[in-house]
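Researcher: We're teaching a course module on how sequence relates to structure. For the next exercise, students receive a sequence and then see the predicted structure as tokens, so they can try to spot secondary structure elements on their own. Here is the exercise chain.
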Amino acid sequence: MLSLDATLFFRVLVFPGFLFVLTLIFFCDWIERKVEARMENRIGPLYTGPSGILQPVADFIKLLSKEDLAPSNIRSTVFKVAPLLSFSVLAFAWLFIPVDGSNAILDSGFEGDLIFVMTLMTIANFFLFLSGWASKNAYSGISAARVLTQFLGYDIPLFVLALTPTFMASSISISKIASSQLVPFALLAPWAFGLFIITLQAELEKDPFDVPLSEAEVVGGYEVEYAGRRLAFLKLSKDIQIVLGAAITVELFLGGPYGPVLFGAPAVWYTLWFILKTVAIIVIGEYITCVFSRLRIDQVLDANWSILLPLSAVSLLAAVGIRIWLIPW
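Model: And here is the predicted structure for the students to work with:
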């Protein structure tokens, strides 16, 4: 019993839990900066660590050491706890992602854990809305309203598109969906894969859907009144949300951690494949961020209700057809 407790403790706090996801967050942040730099003909992080790889860690430590200032007229309790709660919810959701073939808490997950994880992402977004609402700042209030409008709207097509691989795998368990992909669902249903990435960009409030954080309009959005360690956790929440979104995409469409095992322990190879696939999705998302200019708020809403929602419904119908005619029961 003691060994089981020690194993659980290690998997939750070290691998594939908290320490692993924190390391992956900083690594993916560095990848994003390097991709953006190359796209904009810049060098990117260079001096902190080899090729600047430790720059995200240095930035996080710097924010933790800054003075923690807050306006006097804020909704104090919500303002203080919203960033931490958002990060905590997303970190908890990560524990249900199978990284090395099993997740940190339940080895094979449970039927319906996909819905559970995506719901936790929605709850975390709501805490980001509360952080802007609690600031009592005009710009933060506008940003908070945009966050609420955007994630409530784009949650619908994102959930519908997530149902495409669930029909093809006949399961709503993340582990079963990933392990059932002898051929990645991104190849069997490339339209659903592309639509899911675009919708995820909007859910994560990344370009061209980053109207809640538009510096030209709302001066940085819901985080404008934050400083010090609260700002650090607010930014960390967005970073873990981006990595979690990429991980869900990998599990649903790219076979999760599964891939060729050449020699040695399968768990090592599964972890390696998972990291490579997740980084690939991060790079694709960053290319979209760099190539497309920001949409207006009315265009963001029109893109959801007029384009992505109908296409997601068509994608679901196509997935049902693939499941019936192309994939053996």
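Model: If you want an answer key for the exercise: Residues 138-169 form the longest helix (32 residues). The mean pLDDT is 85.
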